[in-house]
Specification:
Rossmann fold, 2 domains, six-stranded mixed sheet, binds adenosine-5'-triphosphate
Length: 279
Amino acid sequence: MNKAVKVRGLRKEYPGHTAVGGIDLDIEQGEVFALLGPNGAGKTTTVEILEGHRKRTKGEVDVLGEDPGTAGRAWRARLGIVLQTANDAAELTVAETVRHFARYYPNPRDTDEVIEKVGLTEKAGARVKSLSGGQRRRVDVALGIIGRPELVFLDEPTTGFDPAARRQFWELIRSLAREGTTILLTTHYLDEAEALADRVAVITRGAIVAEGTPQTLGGRATAEATVRWADEHGAHLERTHFPAKLIRELSADGREPSELTVHRPTLEETYLDLIGEAR
Ligand SMILES: Nc1ncnc2c1ncn2[C@@H]1O[C@H](COP(=O)(O)OP(=O)(O)OP(=O)(O)O)[C@@H](O)[C@H]1O
């Protein structure tokens, strides 16, 4: 499989401060990859270097087969970038804005289809400035995908979305991924990473401290399980690597253990552990 992104030894230094301290990163074509990390960890710096918006201090970077530091307009047209800030073409309507951006690309998607994909069909004729914060964000997403990009960068895409809009957005990302689009997502929502990402990397203080699928990150899948149940003697809790064995024993007499739960670390707990360890 070809790599959409290949990074080796990437460093970004500001005077007196190392924002990114030599990271390696591989993202396969068609993969949804989430970059997680606390504020100031180096996510935006990394992503902006990949987008060609910031110069690196050191390291090798290959995005869609080119070096973002030197790649030209044709390469840029293959990217879709959804920034954190809302767009400011506020006097235009939603449809006019999307149509306007479509002209920058050689092979854009259909404007109406994109507006429908982001759930703004009813607002297509409304001025962008009349939209709510979450609706403006959807316009940003529409502008990020109108050019039929091979690689989409999504920086905290669902900030300000209501729960239903988030779910709808997740469906949109899944449909892009099904079409073969590579997606690099930064998010502070662990449920979002879990719902969408094939793989995640946790970055803190400019270093990647863990990488894997959301299910296995930081040894999550094989972490000790906490089994809780209750019987006539009261409530019980046992931590074990073999919860199935324990439950078999508890139910050996054919009785269903009451209030039985098995808990393994959530992605959020694993993430907080990783961040804590790295502090
Ligand atoms: N232009 C700059 N000059 C100096 N330092 C900078 C500059 N841009 C970013 N930094 C520093 O680099 C570090 C990484 O910042 P970055 O924006 O990449 O973090 P982030 O992980 O995206 O954080 P957030 O989750 O808050 O968006 C921070 O300590 C930040 O202060």
